[in-house]
Structure formats: C-alpha cells, structure tokens
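Here is a tokenized protein:
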Amino acid sequence: MSLTMSATSNQPAAPAGFLDWTQVVFARISNRFDTAATTDLLRWSIQTFGNGLTIGTSFGASGIVLMDLALRIQPDVDIFYIDTGYFFPETQQLIERLQGHYQRAFRRVTTQLGIQEQEKRYGPNLYQNDPDLCCHLRKVAPMKQALADSTAWVSALRHDQSSTRKEVPMVQWNERYNIVKIAPLVHWSEDDIWQYIHKNELPYNELHDQNYPSIGCWPCTHPVQAGDDLRAGRWRGANKVECGLHWELVTR
C-alpha cells in the first residue's frame, strides 16, 4: 500500500482508510476509559506503548498533575517540554523546583532559531505582529523533534479549559505527527486540579496566585478577571485561541 506525504509534516500520510479505522478503534478505547480512574488510562498507556510513550508539559497546573500521576506509575517515563525562549522567570524557577522534587530531569526541546536570529529574519516583536508565525517557529516546529521517536503522546488537555477543548477525546489519532494522542484529564475540573496539587503538596507556578490560570510565553500571557475563560489571558487582542500544537482543535 503506497503512502503519500502529509501536507503538514515530512512524515508519510496515513494510508486511505486508516483514519476511518482509527476513529472506530480509538473511540472504543475512549469509551472504555470514560468512567474509569485517570490512573487506569495512564497505566494502560504506559503498558501499551512502553518506551514509545512521551508526556508533553508546559508546566501549567494540569501538566503538573499529569506528570505526578504518571511518575507514580512509571518513575522514568519520558517527559518533555518545549522551551520557546520566552518563558517567564517564574516558569524557569518552577522547572528547577520540579526537577529537584522528582530527582530527575525533563527532556528540553527547543528550536534552533534563536530569538535574535528570528528578529533579523522577521523583524522585532514577531509575537505581536504575527503571533501565529511566532508560535509555529517556536512551538509547532520543535514539536516534530519532540515526538520523533514516540508512538504515543500524552497531553493535559481538559474539556473545561476553553470552548475549543470541550470535545477532546481521551484517545485519538493525531494526523500532523502520525501518533496516538491521549488526554487522561479531559473530565477533570479546575477545582479537581488544585485539590490534587494542594493535597499532594506539589510545586506550582506562583503566577497562578496572581490571576494567571493559563501560562505561556511572557509577551502573550496576561492575568484574567474573575469569571473569565481560563485561557482568556492568552494572546489578548488577537484573533487566536490556540498556539497550534493541538492543531486538530483549530481546524475542525
């Protein structure tokens, strides 16, 4: 059976009929774990994909809970983050605290395009002038490297985070990276996340205590008002709701 190249990556596109098959199979798996404990899905994922499993985190509150749950099952599970070069100082400090807390390092992935080189090519303040391109260069492009040796990617997406995420399935096929994508926390609420963090005394980003429920790059992240959407502080003033890592959320 011949393969064609995907329009969004250099990886071969899925054969005809494969996507229909994945929808059926992964929908059944999602239904199987829909009312199960989060750790049941994580344990199944770790056992099923072994060393091919990787967990992506941006060190938000949900990502910390996901990491902690997974590390209790498999202490050496692969965990990566994409360093955009625009981290808040508080985020950098949190990474150090978490690595000390778990006595292990996390896999750092970054673009080879430094910020100064980016400014030479595209002008200053690309994050303001063309935030989609900035996200692509500093987040989306490095994700291909992050997932290159993996067969399954676990993320901390939740239904209550935004309108774009309210129908995220627990298990699905990701066409962009040709990988199984797993979201064990879809049914967790913001209160659930914080109860877990406080109960287990986990380190977290102190910006959360300053009305930053969702934290990304410092130029594009702002505090929110009470009652706002959890991601209302991201790319404020721009017609943008996602960075593009979760491409399927913005192309439906």
